[in-house]
Design brief:
The chain is elongated and about 60 Å long. The protein has eleven helices and no strands. By secondary structure, it is mainly α.
């Protein structure tokens, strides 16, 4: 049998996996599997990953590109994180910022309008979710990291706003509309660029909150 005839349907090795093996093989014998780097240096790596994500999208992010930007070897990155999804996931976790945390205007309606403005500011300035939207469907680790770093903290913060409203007697604890609050707000942030080719900015989300969400909750705009 010639080389052309051998295993025509064999799956080609993954390029990233090959790079990881090569990088590991290039390490000196007896070297640590996980290099010791300072927190400041680690943050440099994370910043480089997130910058590439925002500018180029997930598919364009490479260990080689991050290594070049941060002036380190690929083997250093592979020792630390092993794969690109793990690297991106670590960067997301390390740079989480809860935009709805700390909102407290004294009323639930005021809090929700402030949350809408915060979401509008975020949607026009940070393209992280859009950059990862396709990749997270293909990679479970990345999807879990995105939820842990970007979605669940915001959901908990919104839940806290509602709980305070319940405690103040503004809304019933079992009001059925509260279940859909996060999906409504985040769904509009994601869908407007697709439907209208525009970001869901502060004005748009404030109008949406006042016209759709507050009435569904039995609330009115605070005077």
């Amino acid at each position: 049998m010639t080389s052309r005839d051998q295993a025509p349907d064999a799956e080609a090795p993954d390029a990233e996996a090959v790079e990881a093996v090569e990088a590991e093989a290039a390490e000196p014998l007896g070297s640590s599997r996980r290099s010791k780097i300072t927190p400041e240096r680690e943050q440099e790596f994370y910043d480089a990953v997130l910058e590439q994500l925002r500018e180029c999208g997930y598919d364009a992010v490479t260990m080689e590109g991050v290594a070049s930007t941060t002036r380190c070897s690929k083997s250093t990155l592979y020792r630390q994180w092993k794969t690109k999804p793990q690297f991106v996931a670590a960067a997301l976790r390390a740079n989480r910022c809860v935009r709805f945390a700390g909102i407290d205007t004294g009323t639930l309606a005021g809090d929700l309008l402030e949350a809408a403005r915060a979401a509008g500011d975020w949607s026009t300035q940070d393209s992280m979710v859009q950059a990862l939207s396709h990749a997270v469907l293909q990679d479970e680790d990345l999807r879990s990291a995105l939820r842990e770093a970007l979605v669940e903290p915001e959901t908990r913060a919104l839940d806290d706003l509602v709980k305070r409203g319940v405690d103040r007697g503004e809304i019933a604890a079992d009001h059925p509309a509260t279940r859909f609050l996060t999906a409504q707000l985040m769904g509009v942030v994601r869908s407007r660029p697709v439907l209208e080719g525009k970001h869901a900015d502060e004005e748009y989300l404030s109008d949406f909150m006042e016209a759709c969400v507050l009435p569904a909750l039995g609330l009115t705009r605070p005077t």
